[in-house]
Amino acid sequence: MYSDAHPREFPACSGCGLCRLVCPMWRNRRDPRFSPEGLAKALQCGATAAELAPPLDACSLCGACDPVCPERIDLTGMIMELRRALPRQPELVAQQAKFAQAAASAGVAPAGALLLPGAALRADPVLLTRVQALLGIAVAADDGADIALALETGDAIDTLRQRAFLRGLTTFGGRTLVVGDGLLLRQLRRWLPAARLQGLGEALGNVGAIRRRLASADFYVIEARAYHADYERLVGHYDGLRADTGCAMNLDLQRIAIPAVDEAEARWMLQGRRPARIIVENPAERAILRRVADVPVLHLAELAEI
């Protein structure tokens, strides 16, 4: 079921508990049901998705559990799969239909590097324009927002829709795709293993005008989903960024990214820190952190002049 990402499934869970150490659900609740380990052990004992609905809904799909699992279980994939058995929420059904309608009217993607902004970035046209100018690439009319939402909710993805989306991305072979939605990026790495894929944070972090404006007094918040989807490679990228700029990051001792999934998690992340600024890769986390921080919170693209 999850073999496209890792060779072993939830029956392999030994109950070591390493995933708890990095799990926001566990950190906030201290309830063993609200952890990847708890879900895997419950499944081993015959629990159904309906019985596990509260932790399945609570999971942020940040992916922090995947790199630390010694059995290499695709824990994020397990949760995404289990969500398919849960009732669909009407508001999300309507939102997905809206995204799908927009995708159906999209034209052919232009040649060259392409930005798939995702729903959060597309909702901020000013920021999107800035990102596009800094990267110097075209914005995809069809950025797969409906597919990203289906991945989030566990809905099945129509095969014809998937093929049409991927065909639009691969019409011009060899181009770079910059993906703003971390969950979609995770899936594209499985669907297009030979493609040149970058998360938005990585792409912007390589822009000299941005990199030069990061300072040692900044606290840099890595977007967890994109980071954990390519963890082994991106550890080196962010170690280099930290060495060049001196900024602190939302990484624990295992180099796992701590997501600001809600205000409680954001406050926990900032506890004991006194940064001059908070710099984020994810527009959604910018909104959350602005509600709890008493220092400026900026998106990475807002650092550079254009």
TrEMBL record:
One protein family per Pfam: Fer4_8
GO molecular function: iron-sulfur cluster binding; metal ion binding
Record-annotated 4Fe-4S ferredoxin-type domain positions: 48-78
InterPro entries: 4Fe4S_Fe-S-bd, 4Fe4S_Fe_S_CS, Helical_ferredxn
Claim: 4Fe-4S is one of the keywords in the record: no
Keywords of the record: Iron, Iron-sulfur, Metal-binding
Name of the protein: 4Fe-4S ferredoxin-type domain-containing protein
